[in-house]
Write a structure and sequence with these properties.
280 residues, alpha+beta, six-stranded mixed β-sheet, four-stranded antiparallel β-sheet, globular
C-alpha cells in the first residue's frame, strides 16, 4: 500500500537513512525524460534527488533522500502509488551490506566474517556493517557488496548488534595481482619524505585534486576506459599512501566515471588495478 511504503520511508528518513521507492521486480523508477541517459548534464550523487536537482525520483540509488518534503512531494506521489517496496542507500547511511544469496554463502560468512546485524531475505541474508566501501557484485559465489552507489530493499531492522566494517570484507573487492590487465604499467611511488607528516591533508589541496580528476573524466570524449584508469592511478599516486582519501572522495570519482557510461564494476576494477599497479 502507498501509505505503508511512504510511512516506512518517512520513518527511515527521520533516522538518517536515505530512501527511495522501488517498482515491482526490485528495480528503481526510471529517469524522467529530461534526465534520460543523464541528458541533464549532471552526475549522480548521494545528497540530492538527482544530479540536476530533478524533483522526481530519478537516477536510481542517487534518488535516495532523507528530505520529508521530497518524499511527500507531488512529483513523488505517482512513484509511491506504484511502489512495490522501499529501498535505501546503504552508503548514504554509512553502512555496508554483505548480501548472501544462498545457504552456501551464509555458511561461508558464518566462518569467515565477524558477527553483526543480520536481516533475512527471500533467498538468504543481509549482514550489515557500520562503515562504507565501493559496491561490487559477485565478489565470491553468492556474495554481493552493497554500500556506496547502490541500493538495497528495506526488509526490517533484523537481529543482532551491528559491528564495524572489517578488513576481510573490504578485501573482497581487491583483485589479485594476476588479474591486472596486461597493459597496466607498474609504477613505484616513494614514501613521503621529511617528518612523515602528510602535506596533502590541507583541504584545499585535496579538494582541488579531486575536482580536477572529476573534470578530467567528465571532459573525456574518447578512450573513457583508459582515461578513468589513468585518472584513478594519478589520484592514488598522489593521495593513496597517506590516508587522505575518504570513501566520499572515491564515490565522487566513481560517480564521474559512471556519468560517462562506465559500469560500477569497471570502476571497481579500474580502482583495484590502479592500487595493484602502485603496490598498494
Amino acid at each position: 500500500m502507498t501509505a505503508t511504503h511512504l510511512h516506512t520511508a518517512l520513518h527511515l528518513a527521520a533516522t538518517g537513512v536515505p530512501v527511495l521507492p522501488l517498482r515491482a521486480g526490485k528495480v528503481p523508477f526510471g529517469n524522467c525524460r529530461p534526465c534520460t541517459r543523464n541528458a541533464c548534464g549532471g552526475r549522480p550523487n548521494m545528497k540530492t534527488p538527482g544530479p540536476c536537482a530533478c524533483p522526481q525520483p530519478c537516477h536510481g540509488w542517487a534518488a535516495a533522500t532523507t528530505a520529508p518534503t521530497a518524499l511527500r512531494s507531488p512529483q513523488w506521489a505517482r512513484a509511491w502509488r506504484e511502489a512495490a517496496a522501499v529501498a535505501y542507500h546503504p552508503g548514504g547511511a554509512g553502512l555496508t551490506i554483505v548480501d548472501l544469496d544462498n545457504a552456501d554463502a551464509i555458511a561461508w560468512a558464518r566462518k569467515a566474517l565477524p558477527t553483526t546485524q543480520t536481516v533475512a531475505t527471500t533467498r538468504g541474508e543481509h549482514w550489515i556493517y557500520r562503515g562504507t566501501m565501493p559496491s561490487a557484485n559477485g565478489v565470491r559465489p553468492g556474495v554481493d557488496i552493497k554500500s556506496l552507489m547502490a541500493y538495497a530493499r528495506w526488509l526490517g531492522p533484523g537481529t543482532g548488534t551491528m559491528s564495524d566494517l572489517p578488513d576481510v570484507v573490504r578485501a573482497l573487492i581487491v583483485k589479485e595481482p594476476g588479474t591486472v590487465r596486461a597493459t597496466t604499467r607498474t609504477i613505484t611511488v616513494p614514501a613521503p619524505a621529511g617528518s612523515g607528516e602528510c602535506r596533502h591533508r590541507a583541504p584545499a589541496f585535496l579538494e582541488r585534486g579531486i575536482t580536477m580528476a572529476e573534470q578530467r573524466i567528465t571532459e573525456a570524449h574518447s578512450g573513457v576506459h583508459a582515461t578513468v584508469y589513468r585518472t584513478f592511478l594519478a589520484v592514488l599516486s598522489t593521495h593513496g599512501r597517506c590516508g587522505c582519501l575518504t570513501d566520499a572522495h572515491i564515490a565522487r570519482l566513481f560517480a564521474a566515471a559512471q556519468a560517462k557510461g562506465e559500469s560500477p564494476r569497471h570502476c571497481i576494477d579500474a580502482w583495484a588495478n590502479a592500487r595493484t599497479a602502485l603496490g598498494m
